[in-house]
Design a protein that fits this description.
- The structure holds two protein chains of two kinds.
- Chain A has no helices and eleven strands.
- In chain A, strands 2, 4, 5, 9, 10 and 11 form a six-stranded mixed beta sheet that branches.
- Chain B is mostly beta strands.
- Chain B is built from no helices and eleven strands.
- In chain B, a hairpin with a 2-residue loop joins strand 5 and strand 6.
- Chain B is globular and about 40 Å long.
- The chains are: A mainly beta, B mainly beta.
- The interface between A and B is medium-sized, with 24 and 30 residues.
Amino acid sequence: EDKVVQSPLSLVVHEGDTVTLNCSYEVTNFRSLLWYKQEKKAPTFLFMLTSSGIEKKSGRLSSILDKKELFSILNITATQTGDSAIYLCAISVIGSGDKLTFGTGTRLAVRP
Amino acid sequence: KAGVTQTPRYLIKTRGQQVTLSCSPISGHRSVSWYQQTPGQGLQFLFEYFSETQRNKGNFPGRFSGRQFSNSRSEMNVSTLELGDSALYLCASSLALGQGYNEQFFGPGTRLTVL
């Protein structure tokens, strides 16, 4: 069965800190890894990674995938209170349509 | 363009009752997926509908069912509610253009509480 594990489960930092969130997975027929941010209700899409070693960046957020070691990291630099959220990692597999397998998430709290 | 909408937003039911949740996808989106989110299990895939057909199904009991209409709107039904069914039910839609993964857009969810 496909499995996604995220660590840490929760994290408290101060504004300006840099954080690294981890996601490891065990799946067959890997297609892509996705990161979502969930603040109140609806998860919002951050990144999709399909190729190993390629970094995706959007402002202060970046992510990289290691397909050999089966993990991904999400980095947030110069954190702000608005970054406080649950960060979700999910896997899409070939032949499963739009089905995503999610990890339980990392709850990030950024203190002023 | 309006986002994914879900109704109702909040629902309180008692054990043994049944419930129907509704999801309207973004206009033009053809695939609708449902997820259950609980504090202990995170987001778990329930099922996906495309062109009124169930394309994928998660590991949930038969009490959980769904359907999709010709306008792509979808409903999910839970019969004989149990306390453990209390959760946030999220719906997501995508264009479903091809074989690759299609970016999914999530609705705000329906918070179901079973007493």
